[in-house]
Amino acid sequence: MTRELFDDYIWTKENKTLTHTEHGIPGLGNFTHKNTSGSTPPSPLHYHTNILVIHCMVKGQRTSVIEKNGQFNTYTFAGNTAFLTFPFEIHGNGDQAQLPCEFYGFQIDLSEPGNLLGLNREYSSSLAKLLLNQKDRQLRLNASHLNYLRTSFNFISSLERENIQVGVQFLTCFLYSLQYLQPAVQEVTTTVDEPIHRSIVHLNQHLTEPLQLQDLAEMAGYSLSYYKQKFKQEVGITPSEYMMLQKIERAKKILTESDQSITNIAFSMGFSSSNYFCSVFKKFMDCTPKDYRKKYRE
Question: How far apart are CA 298 and CA 293, in angstroms?
């Protein structure tokens, strides 16, 4: 199952992308500076398991499409705007080529919330919590914030250890400043195919109950084979993958906000056994439910 979509290392005039392999900074995935002079192909729908993605526009504009409960919200963001995509969100650029623009983009890997950007456990966990609790998706930037990013990227892209350490400090300052920025809202909501949307709403409302794909297909008025095909065409992933995504997200919330046993959570989410729940959870989160609870409690 293809869960992630990552760019490879590239260094051209218009696209400079560093991966974790090059910079080696804890909790930082790809770090990109793009300055395109022509249109670029749209990114297909995909999602990231534990990764928060932040795009910061310098000039031009960009479009992003994000799914929530069977609806796609389309956002257009221009210069001096930061745009956040949270873990597990199905997103892409729609079906239109992207206009020429300049932006910085980077990925914060939250799979180890106590080990971000070389911070100690206390500060790292505080930063992870701040990012995950960020209420606004679009934020207005000023010149100083873009200078933080530009300076950070320039230092880190030298790939010299002393410079990387300086670059991380500028990036950390930028991330901590997000909580003080003003929201910038520009979005248009569109609904996927109505029968598919109806089945998604039902799925999310009855997530803890036994659900069969055949039942969802009948609710949509489609045959099972066509339902699977249409669902992936509309949402970007299969109905089974979508269902598991929602269950894991719900389970994460229960794990961090209650003391329910792993077994109770497994059965409440409709899993046949706690072992199967743990297996699926680890596939998505790269850790067991017990370890996940422990990390976030700490």
Answer: 8
- Rg (Cα) of the chain, in Å, rounded? 20
Q: Which DSSP string do the residues of 103-159 spell out, in sequence order?
A: EEEEEEE-SSTT-STT--HHHHHHHHHHHHT---SEEE--HHHHHHHHHHHHHHHT-
Give the contacts of 69 (CB within 8 A, at least 6 positions apart): 200, 201, 204
Q: DSSP letter at 46?
A: B
268-287 pLDDT, tens digit per residue, is 888 888 899 998 888 877 78
Q: Under a CB-based contact definition with an 8 Å cutoff, are residues 116 and 171 in contact?
A: no
Amino acid at 169: Q
Query: Contact, 195 vs 220, CB < 8 A?
Result: yes
- Cβ neighbours of residue 237 under 8 Å, at least 6 residues apart? 45, 47, 90, 245
State the burial class of residue 120 (Cβ atoms within 10 Å of its Cβ: 0-12, 13-18, 19+).
exposed
Token pair in block for residue 125: 């966990």
Q: What is the tens place of the pLDDT at every residue in 180-189?
A: 999 987 656 6
**Predicted TM-score (pTM) above 0.70:** yes
52-91 tens-digit pLDDT: 999 999 988 888 889 887 788 888 888 889 999 999 898 8
